[in-house]
């Protein structure tokens, strides 16, 4: 059995490795081969044409066949050049459907050429000159060409749209992280602390019901077994990893998040690092272990309680996060979450980290309903990748939460995080509504943000004072936006101000409250998906 597998491996084109590059190289060779064949055949065009005309004098049918096949054989070379350019584009995009169509059409044209070649060989005795040898060589080459292309199509079927050769971090990437604490040129920090390393054998993953999943990553609930002298303690944790077919840029984003969590330490309002399994990271097996926030994201928590307030049963037996219907949301909760979110963002900003993807879905709640910021540290590189990875008819990146300068020129700063914070708190006070309902992403939308003509309306449960503070977060001039220290102080003052009757605020129940459908997209690198 082992010899059979080895034989099948060796017999594959390029031994089954780097097939994308091999097919692209063959496409380039195809252009060169056909140009050469066209050039070599030019001196013979006149003699061949005269020879075909002689046949017309005594056999008109044979003349028509010879002329048709002769024209097609030479025309096929020009067609092959155009098809080679098309193949290069299809293979670069790893478009399996397009590759199938290309194979069917190209194989059909080739079979027609083969029939013409055989006909010319029989009728015109091409075997007596150099052309016969050239066309035989071309036939063998074409068979190898199609074989390699079909093998590449099968490789896409096995591995998806990601080149297997690009799914592994290089030695240089790993050395940068584990020895210098650097994942890319944009951020450098402390080297990875080996004290965070946890053997995978100490994790009991619940893979049946993931906490969240997306196109590139998945989050599992797990039990961490911690040996304590002669006994074993346990802790419920959340474990992040990437799916096997994800591009290496997604794996790097998870490594980057591990790097940042490793560098900045613990804080009460961020989801803290518990440990990591990095022993097989080069084989794409990286597990980042963080605190488990029992109530899930603020977005989902608000949606669940909003449904309950509207008289709809919200408890879901399949849901891995807990719903606490015994503690309905009130105005004070929303203010406190706004303050705690600002507190967490102030901490990561002081550590020179830009969040880049702040939204209510990326702020989690502990069982005691403490807000913790999660999924930070996504780099500009990831958003550029996300923009170009999407098809033109799909929604690009989380545009509803992003500042105009991020959408305009991918400029991410603490000031752009301040903008996203304003949108996130807007979600809090609208009980999880979608920002900019009814609008779609376009250049006019970006221009409207840039000129100040487009801004979210006042959320239903925010006071005028709170809405005015949120509007400051959406200032056109990034430097005019409030710092997280000021935002934290603002909401802390509301909590402490006895003149605001937050203690007697009724529970938030509004049967007439309507919410726009949630935005459906997956952002590259967002591994929480909750």
TrEMBL record:
GO MF assignments: ATP binding; transmembrane receptor protein tyrosine kinase activity
InterPro entries linked to this entry: Kinase-like_dom_sf, Prot_kinase_dom, Protein_kinase_ATP_BS, RTK, Ser-Thr/Tyr_kinase_cat_dom, Tyr_kinase_AS
Residues noted as binding ATP in the record, renumbered to the chain: 240
Domain Protein kinase: 205-491
Reactions listed under catalytic activity: L-tyrosyl-[protein] + ATP = O-phospho-L-tyrosyl-[protein] + ADP + H(+)
Main localization, broad class: membrane
Annotated GO biological process: cell development; cell surface receptor protein tyrosine kinase signaling pathway; neuron differentiation; positive regulation of cellular component organization; regulation of developmental process
Membrane topology type: Single-pass membrane protein
Residues spanning the membrane: 69-90, 102-126, 132-150
Family annotation (CDD domains): PTKc (cd00192)
PROSITE patterns assigned to the protein according to its UniProt record, in alphabetical order: PROTEIN_KINASE_ATP, PROTEIN_KINASE_DOM, PROTEIN_KINASE_TYR
GO-annotated cellular components: endomembrane system; plasma membrane; receptor complex
UniProt xrefs under SUPFAM superfamilies: Protein kinase-like (PK-like) (SSF56112)
Cellular compartments annotated: Endomembrane system; Membrane
Keywords per UniProt: ATP-binding, Kinase, Membrane, Nucleotide-binding, Receptor, Transferase, Transmembrane, Transmembrane helix, Tyrosine-protein kinase
Name used for this protein in its record: Fibroblast growth factor receptor 3
Organism: Folsomia candida
């Amino acid at each position: 059995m082992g010899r059979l597998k080895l034989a099948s491996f060796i017999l594959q084109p390029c031994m089954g490795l780097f097939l994308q590059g091999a097919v692209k190289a063959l496409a380039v060779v195809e252009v060169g081969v056909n140009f050469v064949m066209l050039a070599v055949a030019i001196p013979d065009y006149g003699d061949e044409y005269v020879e075909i005309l002689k046949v017309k004098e005594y056999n008109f049918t044979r003349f028509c066949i010879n002329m048709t096949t002769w024209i097609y054989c030479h025309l096929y070379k020009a067609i092959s050049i155009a098809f080679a350019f098309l193949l290069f584009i299809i293979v670069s995009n790893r478009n399996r459907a397009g590759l199938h169509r290309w194979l069917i059409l190209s194989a059909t044209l080739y079979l027609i050429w083969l029939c013409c070649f055989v006909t010319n060989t029989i009728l015109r005795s091409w075997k007596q000159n150099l052309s016969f040898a050239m066309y035989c060589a071309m036939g063998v080459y074409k068979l190898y060409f199609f074989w390699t292309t079909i093998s590449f199509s099968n490789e896409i079927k096995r591995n998806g749209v990601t080149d297997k050769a690009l799914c592994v971090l290089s030695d240089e990437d790993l050395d940068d992280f584990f020895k210098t604490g650097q994942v890319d040129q944009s951020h450098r920090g402390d080297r990875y602390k080996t004290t965070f390393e946890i053997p995978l054998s100490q994790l009991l993953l619940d893979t049946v019901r993931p906490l969240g999943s997306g196109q590139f990553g998945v989050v599992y609930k797990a039990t961490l077994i911690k040996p304590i002298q002669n006994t074993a303690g346990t802790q419920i944790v959340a474990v992040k990893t990437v799916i096997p077919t994800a591009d290496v840029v997604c794996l790097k984003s998870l490594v980057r998040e591990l790097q940042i969590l490793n560098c900045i330490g613990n804080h009460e309002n961020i989801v803290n690092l518990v440990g990591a399994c990095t022993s097989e990271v080069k084989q794409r097996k990286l597990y980042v272990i963080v605190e488990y926030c029992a109530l899930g994201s603020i977005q989902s928590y608000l949606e669940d309680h909003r449904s309950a307030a509207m008289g709809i049963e919200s408890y879901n037996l399949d849901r891995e996060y807990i719903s606490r219907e015994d503690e309905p949301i009130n105005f004070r909760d929303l203010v406190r979450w706004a303050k705690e979110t600002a507190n967490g963002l102030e901490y990561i900003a002081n550590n020179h980290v830009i969040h880049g993807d702040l939204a209510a879905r990326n702020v989690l709640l502990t069982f005691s309903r403490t807000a913790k910021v999660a999924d930070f540290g996504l780099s500009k590189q990831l958003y550029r990748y996300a923009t170009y990875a999407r098809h033109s008819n799909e929604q690009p990146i989380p545009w509803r939460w992003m500042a105009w300068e991020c959408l305009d020129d991918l400029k991410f700063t603490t000031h752009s995080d301040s903008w996203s914070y304003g949108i996130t708190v807007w979600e809090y006070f609208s009980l999880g509504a979608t920002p900019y309902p009814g609008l779609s992403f376009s250049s006019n939308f970006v221009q409207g943000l840039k000129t100040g003509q487009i801004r979210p309306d006042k959320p239903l449960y925010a006071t005028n004072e709170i809405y005015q503070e949120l509007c400051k977060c959406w200032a056109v001039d990034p430097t005019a936006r409030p710092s997280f220290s000021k935002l934290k102080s603002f909401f802390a003052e509301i909590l402490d101000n006895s003149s605001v009757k937050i203690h007697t605020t009724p529970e938030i129940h509004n049967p007439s409250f309507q919410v726009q459908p949630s935005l459906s997209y997956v952002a590259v690198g967002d591994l929480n998906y909750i």
